[in-house]
């Protein structure tokens, strides 16, 4: 018995076909159908791909939003034995061309609004043979539209038997410098990752859930939620193209979403939007935020004002992506809401199957005192052991372990707390300053929506921190002296940033994280 | 990364060592310690076994009750790469000697009260080299007592790396006729079975649970609950030697048990005991009954009188044992308690990873109309594909599928409902009569505790049903005409048993199921 994604699809098709897949379309209307239809169309799509000449091991790329068609591709391509390469739509043309050439994609599925990118990039992708537009209207370029293509397939297509170590998915992680690095997922890896997500002590995804993945399907498997939803037959609500915070909240309210997952930066936007226009989000049993550390202040706001617990996890494209999860152990749970939040701001413990160690500069485990930071290393059945055909692998992988580049401390219970990305730590006078700690405390200051802290070159101290701060009210003002005094309540004097810059918004990267590279350039300008 | 049981133990040791293992001892006192101690002693035990000369692949047998020492063996032996053979203490001496010789056990761990069995059997087990008595007092026979043996090991022992397809467990299933048949479990099989148990839509075993496995550890891995408890670090309460229904209820009340698992026959005893002496069992979120079909009447009594939902599952020694689980889907759940019970009496749908088919006599899938019975076939990563060195394998296995010998119908939702064991169906005038259906209806009759129906030879009809009925009150009487009229409300006239025999108790097999072989012999006597 091979551990392959097909097993999940066929079980749901046979035993749990009754729940809905709801997909927000470009015009804001909702498309809805049942898993029975989803499974039939997924078979038909795999058949159409096989008839097109797609072979096991071939790379099939997507350039698209979170939609039902994208979700059909999520299973049709792997169940055919081919490899689904989800291209990050927010990369530059140059990087998209690079990764499609590096992956040697042969087919591309693209959402209509992303066709301009394809027009610019496709001519330089040497391997590309077919382009299919995810629409039901005649396609302005490429082979044809998705529905016409689907019609060429057989809805009773039998998926082939596939060996569990076969590659089935591919995603590129944006490097700080240089070209993106490719990560390949196997059937076995995604099968086990999917099971892990459905464990009661991890995300507890269930047939009773209505899952709303805001995290893009082109970003680290949408954190595995489409796979998990199919595996248990959970209702899934896909937010479609260009979802705003308002769109997401409207969907949660209308569809009674129980589980939502998004980048921390989106969590900040959701809260701000709720303040502008209240919605009923009482159906949510959990809001999972990731991509960076969730500020405690945001967590308390969601908890106290809306009764919604925030789930914190840690992972990366290299980890499929889930590696650790906050676990509120029974004794802490029974100690009450205040104690739970202290645990929920931490990145938690490895999910079953993953091994974790936090190592200092000498390669020795850090003490469990929550004071000594070290780099997080993980390994497990779904954690990458190399980058795809990339010499940079040797910098990040050794003996089956992935060196994450993330810096954390470990508490007495073994749970980790992210302190910083290795490259984001501020080094002042030979000591480390955690940008994440400063950001969390600033975000808790009255009148502040969010904050980012980066290093500024300094002749005397080597580096000094600079804070960029966004006010809660759009027209709000913030007094640097008040911010400074707020931080002085908790941190040593030499931790207090030299400069506080009030900005209307923080720059974000293609995957929705705060773009610290841009901020560092601004900070360097301030230093001059 | 290999899928081995060690992964679970080491994660709990490092991140979730705080919960308790509670073990009822022979004198009724409770022994308690934490997972930190459990893991340390398990390493020490593995080390002692290695120093004794136990090699990977060697068989280590146990003859014991559900105790903390037995639970240490549950992980020490597999994590050393050896094979844990849990011997059913209720087998005859002849069968125990047969299976120990067939397994070629080299070491035997035995509980003190079972030493008489060992004295009789051990001399005929040719492979046996060591006997260790699970006690802390000097052992009257064998090598030594468990605690002295443990002291020879190193508590910092590092478990070896083991290939996931290595065998790690072994259990014999009692055949109706002939010698017991051996089933071997692999590391990979038990790893995946453990994860399945912890899925929210299966048993949802969690660190927040207090698990009370009444099902013996010598019977089908105690349904996988010791493995699941270790994997998530759940509190576990072990009922020790000779637990009575009163002992079990006292433990649930005192330890605030959340999840209890037992044979259906024990469930009947628990209910009868609760009527005699009430206890607070409100902490229970679920009572899992298995081994045979749970009567709807018993389920309603637990639900209505105690608010405890009964979980129904189906499996067998050959299936590690879990193959299917009742799943109350969201729409049914929201329809209310009455609708949920209609689903909960069914054996449900395959757990993720297992494939299932119900085939008629011609090998064709039965229609999903809940009317046409067929034999249940399953396959999956933890389902056996053969009996250990046994020519009878070819009668039960083909193409990776196990033919269970259990007869079920399938509903429109695909869920199965057990109708009978193939050998327990009553064949009357060329038509099938389900003994399970008759038993369920009799158990719902006022004044009835439980019932068993078997076939009696009949000259005219080939076979006719006979019912053995136990009154709810020990001194109660039951009128056959009333029982007959009760059944006539629901069944065709030719289904009604020809005889109703009132008995004080039903005979039970070594694994606690109703012993239908003995009843058939009694029924044959009645026919003469």
TrEMBL record, chains A, B:
Residues 438-513 form the AMP-binding enzyme C-terminal domain. Keywords: Fatty acid metabolism, Ligase, Lipid metabolism. This is 3-methylmercaptopropionyl-CoA ligase. GO terms for molecular function: ligase activity. NCBIfam families: PRK06187.1 (NF004837). It catalyses: 3-(methylsulfanyl)propanoate + ATP + CoA = 3-(methylsulfanyl)propanoyl-CoA + AMP + diphosphate. Its EC number is 6.2.1.44. It comes from Enhydrobacter aerosaccus. Belongs to the ATP-dependent AMP-binding enzyme family. SUPFAM superfamilies: Acetyl-CoA synthetase-like.
């Amino acid at each position: 018995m091979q551990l392959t994604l097909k097993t999940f699809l066929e079980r749901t098709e046979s035993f749990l076909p009754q729940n809905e897949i709801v997909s927000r379309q470009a015009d804001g209307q909702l498309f809805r159908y049942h898993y029975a239809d989803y499974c039939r169309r997924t078979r038909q799509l795999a058949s159409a791909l096989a008839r097109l000449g797609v072979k096991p091991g071939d790379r099939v790329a997507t350039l698209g939003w979170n939609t039902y068609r994208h979700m059909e591709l999520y299973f049709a391509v792997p169940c055919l034995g081919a490899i689904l390469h989800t291209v990050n739509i927010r990369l530059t043309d140059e990087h998209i061309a690079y990764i499609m050439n590096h992956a040697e994609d042969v087919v591309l599925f693209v959402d209509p609004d992303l066709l301009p990118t394809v027009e610019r990039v496709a001519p330089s992708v040497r391997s590309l043979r077919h382009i299919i537009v995810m629409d039901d209207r005649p396609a302005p370029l490429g082979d044809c539209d998705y529905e016409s293509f689907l019609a060429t397939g057989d809805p009773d297509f039998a998926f082939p038997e596939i060996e569990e170590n076969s590659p089935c998915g591919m995603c590129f992680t944006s490097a700080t410098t240089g070209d993106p690095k490719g990560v390949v997922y196997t059937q076995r890896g995604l099968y086990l990752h999917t099971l892990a997500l459905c464990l009661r002590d991890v995300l507890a995804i269930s047939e009773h859930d209505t899952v709303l993945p805001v995290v893009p399907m082109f970003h680290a498997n949408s954190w595995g939620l489409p796979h998990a939803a199919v595996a248990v037959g959970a209702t899934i609500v896909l937010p479609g193209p260009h979802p705003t915070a308002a769109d997401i909240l409207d969907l949660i309210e209308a569809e009674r979403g129980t589980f939502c997952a998004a980048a921390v930066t989106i969590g900040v936007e959701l809260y701000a939007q709720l303040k502008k226009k209240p919605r009923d989000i009482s159906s949510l049993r959990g809001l999972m935020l990731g991509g960076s550390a969730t500020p405690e202040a945001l967590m308390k706001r969601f908890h106290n004002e809306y009764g919604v617990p925030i789930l914190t996890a840690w992972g990366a494209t290299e980890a499929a992506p889930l590696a650790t999860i906050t676990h509120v152990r029974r004794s802490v749970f029974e100690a009450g809401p205040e104690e739970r939040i202290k645990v929920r701001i931490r990145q938690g413990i490895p999910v079953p199957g993953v091994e974790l160690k936090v190592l200092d500069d000498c390669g020795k485990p850090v003490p469990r005192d929550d004071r000594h930071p070290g780099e997080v290393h993980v390994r497990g059945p779904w954690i990458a052991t190399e980058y795809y055909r990339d010499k940079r692998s040797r910098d990040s992988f050794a003996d089956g372990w992935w060196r994450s580049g993330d810096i954390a401390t470990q508490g007495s219970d073994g749970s980790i707390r992210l302190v910083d990305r290795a490259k984001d730590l501020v080094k002042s006078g030979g000591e480390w300053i955690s940008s994440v700690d400063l950001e969390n405390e600033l975000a808790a200051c009255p009148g502040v929506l969010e904050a980012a802290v980066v290093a500024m070159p300094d002749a005397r101290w080597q580096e000094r921190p600079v804070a960029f701060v966004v006010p809660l009210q759009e027209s709000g003002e913030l007094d640097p002296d008040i911010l400074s005094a707020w931080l002085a309540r908790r941190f040593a004097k030499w931790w207090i940033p030299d400069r506080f810059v009030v900005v209307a918004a923080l720059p974000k990267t293609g995957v929705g994280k705060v773009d610290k590279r841009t901020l560092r350039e601004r900070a360097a300008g301030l230093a001059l």
